[in-house]
Design brief:
Layout: E1 9-18, E2 21-31, E3 35-40, H1 47-55, E4 62-67, E5 70-72, H2 77-82, E6 85-88, H3 100-107, H4 119-129, H5 145-158, E7 163-167, H6 175-190, E8 194-198, H7 202-208, E9 211-216, E10 219-225, H8 231-239, E11 258-267, E12 270-278, E13 282-286, H9 293-300, E14 306-312, E15 315-316, H10 322-327, E16 330-333, H11 337-340, H12 348-352, E17 361-362, E18 366-367, H13 369-383, H14 399-412, E19 417-421, H15 429-444, E20 448-452, H16 456-462, E21 465-470, E22 473-478, H17 485-493, H18 520-539, H19 546-571, H20 579-591, H21 598-624, H22 630-648, H23 658-664, E23 667-668, E24 671-672, H24 673-691, H25 693-703, H26 705-711, H27 715-741, H28 752-762, H29 774-793, H30 798-824
Parallel strand pairs: 3-8, 3-9, 6-7, 7-8, 13-20, 13-21, 16-19, 19-20
Antiparallel strand pairs: 1-2, 1-4, 4-5, 9-10, 11-12, 11-14, 14-15, 17-18, 21-22, 23-24
Transmembrane segments: 522-540, 552-570, 577-595, 601-623, 630-648, 660-689, 720-739, 751-768, 775-794, 800-818
GO molecular function: ATP binding; ATP hydrolysis activity; transmembrane transporter activity
Membrane topology: Multi-pass membrane protein
Length: 832
């Protein structure tokens, strides 16, 4: 049993090892009630990993966690939350596809969570009490970075936490929001809450914290009462290293011509950047991560939208265009080598020559291997790239050698301006020396070099000048007289600027999602179906006969069920290519029970559903546990399942008897009962996705699995459940298809795989996950099936039927691409 002064959170001997780095090495931390405990350290010191361990999003390799008097070898986000710990991440752990109110339902523990019906009103009232002007029904994806941070803070406060952990909480906040947050912290502390405050900013520590712990390279290197240490002593503890790396000599740049000039450059996350870089000069961009320096560097490369003026050797550069920047001689080297820079499967030769193809080709068409080797060979030799040959795949090289290959690519292009992001990230000490030498040699040719780095030692030794960013602006310019690691780090952590105001989004249509209950896509599809049916009936009146309509609805039933199963999977960010094969297996399985009494057939239905669920479970295991890509996993199972169906029924058979067919074809007011059941399933699916906790988990997982996990969603289990439901619904689609055909045929149902994807996308779901409507899928399945039926009644040739259906398939594939382009279009972008 704890006393009032016992720590509410204790971390003892915490160890966390990642490949090649020991992020935490025996860290101890004890946080007392009624106290703000600051945790400081440079980028990479282990602060965020420590936060993850406390919150349950990171599992330690060793150590003990004591929360509220109970020992835990490890926590999960949900368990930490249920035990009174609330965490506000530096990057908000919110899923973009959920509304603010739905996010509250996921984030809040059971004891304070409102009901689904009361969630919107409760959230609106909670935000109003906190003085936050944020709509409860807004999608998280529509929020600004500032609003998202405030929502996560509001959720944390709503839990009435015994321990509150704040990871860089003021990075996206302005002065008013920061003061508001500090007032809330003071009230919590007065009530006995323990607060862990992660930051780089010493002025904030002075204002809000009583004690501190300093991390460096994954270890605790100091701490104690804040008032017992001067700012200089805190900086010394944070830095704690000497300049022990040999750097090339720095030249005298007096009188050098200006090559790169930016004036009043501004964009999302940075403002009023004015800088000049001379020929032969290396200028560093420094600052605590997330203060605008990275966006500013990428704006100079034309990779993000910006406003202002940029010139190279006096020539203006069109902003927001990487191609325009490249034409003016600007070369950018990304710090994310594997995703944005190297072609891992291509050879060293192919990577180096990638930006010089006209020089190594004949008539700019045919690559000449001799020219390629002649160009790449000397660059590789000069950089001492360690590889067996020029044909070695770059993906097999070490990080340092990959970076050398990128520098070789840049060097053969003789860049006028070289922008380098994190040049030695993940690089060993020996390779660092080579990289520093090459950067200085490139500068000696007259290139203007800008280096962004989180390593103050590197910036001190390599750069002629360093610009320290703080909250989107240049806080300090350090040159030879005061260019030291201490000064760089001190300028960053002692900065007091307020954050650059987040750009206001364009006006959002009020109550857009309330229109037609948020089911405008479903209504649109129903309207199109009615119009198409009317046009067809004018040309062929029998199209609306009872028999035709009944057959149309039966066909729709099977397509709708399979599409609903596909929707559940797609919403998690996956895809199921096995649904057509599951339909075939289901049709075959149920056909063995088609000649008996109704009870016997019911057993067959259960067998078919169980088989579909088993296939879905296998898909889920392959995707969520084995981590196979969904396309690969479900394609493998699709082949196996259709093979099993063909073994069971090499030839069509298992004809349903007349009584069973009559029962399956029962209608109510001309509408098949099977279709009515499918509609009820769709309505149930709608309620599941919109009102149930499982539905929120599905949408959160597909929107952002990392954020979903941090919110407390069991991502792997959610994906497993999605594939299981998808398989069961596909099997149900097979049963509906058997009700239509009355025969077991292993070759049937394969077309439903592509058709289901078409329906899901036309129904407005994103193929990248997170969104979708069961009601829209029902309506779209009816629309697609109506197209197929009407084409036959209109006597459209078989060739044109394929063409027209193909057009809809292509349209379905293009819909997400068009949406993405609209979001990225200049008109949709935010102006600074």
């Amino acid at each position: 049993m704890t006393t009032v002064r016992d720590p509410l959170l204790t971390l003892t001997g915490i160890v966390k090892q990642y490949p090649g780095v020991r992020a935490l090495d025996g860290v101890d931390l004890a946080v007392l009630p009624g106290q703000v405990h600051a945790v400081l350290g440079e980028n990479g010191a282990g602060k965020s990993t420590l936060v993850g361990v406390a919150a349950g999003s990171v599992t330690p390799d060793a150590g003990r966690i004591t929360l509220g008097g109970r020992d835990h070898p490890a926590l999960t986000p949900a368990l930490a939350r249920e035990n009174g710990l609330a965490l506000v991440y530096q990057t908000p752990a919110l899923a973009g596809s959920l509304t603010v109110a739905e996010s509250m339902l996921v984030l809040l523990p059971e004891q304070v969570r409102p009901t689904v019906d009361a969630a919107a009103a409760w959230t609106a009232e909670h935000l109003r009490e906190l003085g936050l002007d944020i709509g409860a029904d807004q999608l998280v994806s529509e929020l600004t970075a500032r609003e998202a941070h405030l929502v996560e803070i509001a959720a944390a406060l709503a839990t009435r936490p015994r321990v509150l952990v704040l990871d860089e909480p003021t990075e996206a906040l302005g002065p008013d929001e920061t003061n508001w947050l500090f007032d809330r912290i003071r009230h919590l502390v007065a009530d006995g809450t323990a607060v862990v405050y992660i930051t780089h900013r010493i002025p904030e520590i002075r204002e809000i914290a009583q004690t501190m712990t300093v991390l460096r390279d994954g270890r605790v290197v100091g701490g104690g009462p804040v008032g017992d240490h001067t700012d200089e002593q805190i900086v010394e503890m944070i830095v704690g290293r000497s300049l022990d790396t040999t750097f090339p000599a720095k030249p005298d740049l007096a009188g050098a011509d200006v090559v790169l000039a930016a004036e009043g450059l501004r964009g999302a996350g940075f403002d009023e950047l004015t800088v000049q870089v001379a020929a032969g000069e290396i200028v560093g961009f420094a600052g605590v991560e997330g203060n605008g320096q990275r966006q500013a560097l990428r704006a100079l490369a034309g990779l993000v939208r910006s406003h202002g003026r940029v010139t190279v050797a006096g020539r203006p550069v069109a902003l927001g265009s990487p191609a325009a920047a490249a034409r003016q001689g600007i070369t950018f080297l990304s710090g994310d080598r594997l995703r944005e820079a190297v072609f891992g499967d291509l050879s060293i030769r192919e990577n180096i020559d990638a930006l010089a193809l006209p020089r190594v080709s004949l008539l700019r068409t045919l690559l000449v291997p001799g020219r390629e080797r002649a160009l790449a060979g000397p660059a590789v030799a000069a950089l001492r790239v360690k590889a067996a040959s020029l044909e070695t795949p770059v993906g097999t090289l070490s990080g340092g050698n990959q970076q050398k290959v990128l520098l070789a690519r840049a060097s053969i292009g003789d860049p006028t301006v070289l922008l380098v992001e994190d040049p030695t990230q993940g690089v060993d000490a020996g390779a660092r020396l080579e990289i520093y030498r090459v950067l200085r040699e490139l500068a000696a040719r007259g290139t203007a070099v800008v280096v962004l780095s989180t390593d103050a030692v590197e910036l001190e030794g390599l750069c002629d000048r360093v610009l320290v960013f703080s909250r989107g602006r240049i806080h300090a310019e350090l040159s030879a007289a005061n260019l030291s690691e201490r000064d760089i780090t001190g300028a960053a952590v002692l900065a007091t600027e307020h954050a650059v105001a987040a750009p206001e989004p364009q006006a959002r249509p009020a109550n857009r999602r309330k229109l037609l209950g948020g089911e405008s896509q479903a209504v649109l599809m129903l309207v199109l179906t009615v119009l198409l049916a009317t046009v067809t009936a004018v040309q062929a009146p029998t199209f609306l006969s009872t028999l035709t309509v009944g057959q149309l609805l039966l066909a729709t039933a099977s397509l709708a069920l399979v599409s609903l199963g596909q929707l559940v999977v797609v919403m998690t960010g996956g895809i199921d290519l096995s649904v057509g094969s599951v339909v075939a297996l289901s049709v075959v399985a149920v056909s063995f029970f088609g000649a008996g009494p109704p009870g016997y057939f019911a057993v067959g239905v259960l067998v078919a559903l169980a088989a579909g669920a088993a296939v879905g479970l296998l898909n889920g295991v392959l995707v969520s546990r084995v981590n196979l890509p969904p396309v690969v996993a479900t394609l493998i199972t699709s082949i196996g399942v259709v093979g099993a169906a063909q073994l069971l029924r090499p030839l069509p058979g298992g004809q349903a008897d007349d009584l069973l067919l009559a029962a399956l074809g029962t209608t109510v007011a001309g509408i098949p009962v099977v279709f009515v059941i499918v509609v009820l399933v769709g309505v149930g699916g709608h309620l599941l996705l919109r009102r149930a906790r499982a539905g929120r988990a599905l949408r959160a997982t597909g929107s952002n699995p990392v954020s979903a996990s941090r919110m407390g969603v069991a991502v792997a289990s959610t994906r497993l459940l999605a594939y299981l439901l998808g398989g069961a619904l596909a099997a149900a689609g097979g049963v509906a298809l058997y009700a239509q055909t009355g025969i077991g045929d292993a070759s049937t149902g394969q077309a439903l795989t592509l058709a289901s994807v078409t329906v899901v996308v036309l129904a407005g779901a994103s193929i990248f996950g997170g969104t979708g409507s069961a009601l829209a899928v029902l309506a779209t399945a009816l629309f697609v099936q109506t197209i197929t039926s009407s084409l036959s009644f209109l006597s459209v040739s078989l060739a044109w039927q394929y063409w027209i259906q193909g057009i809809f398939v292509v349209t379905a594939a293009l819909v997400p691409l068009v949406r993405t382009r609209r979001r990225r279009a200049p008109g949709a972008a935010v102006s600074a």
